[in-house]
Amino acid sequence: MQYMIIEKFHPGKVKALYRRFAEKGRMLPEGVLYISSWINEGVTICYQVMEADSPEKLQQWISRWNDLADFEVIPVISSAQAKEKVFGNG
């Protein structure tokens, strides 16, 4: 399953977040895959797409970062999957 993650950095914690990332990487547990990410211009919010075997694995990853940011997790499907869901096979 893929997820849109909206990661809101805690005020004053952005440097600490980037330092941890530089030292330890993404710290992804097995079964979680980083797809891509974008940061707003104010460097206060990160939007990223992740893939995970289970919501529990994703929460394991979040627990490694939630002292520096708050996370909103939104399960997503591709546009093609949405079209299939709406129209079916034919």
CATH architecture: 2-Layer Sandwich
Distance between the termini: 24 Å
Total helices: the number is: 3
CATH class: Alpha Beta
Contiguous runs where pLDDT drops below 50 for at least 5 residues: none
Mean pLDDT: 96
CATH topology name, in short, is Alpha-Beta Plaits
Q: By helix and strand content, what is the structural category?
A: alpha+beta
> Going by CATH, what is the homologous superfamily?
Dimeric alpha+beta barrel
- Helices and strands, in order, run as EHEEHEH
Question: Tell me, what's the shape?
Answer: globular
Helix content: 25-40%
Radius of gyration: 15 Å
What share of residues are in beta strands? 35-45%
Largest sheet: 4 strands, antiparallel
How would you explain this protein's 3D organization?
The protein has 90 residues and is α+β, with helices and mostly antiparallel strands. It has one domain (2-87): Alpha-Beta Plaits (2-Layer Sandwich), CATH 3.30.70.1060. Helix content is 32%, strand content 36%. It has three helices and four strands. It has helices spanning 14-24, 55-63, 79-87, and strands at residues 2-9, 32-39, 45-52, 69-76. A four-stranded antiparallel beta sheet has the order 2-3-1-4. Strand 2 and strand 3 (45-52) form a beta hairpin. The radius of gyration is 15 Å and the shape is globular. 9% of the residues are buried.
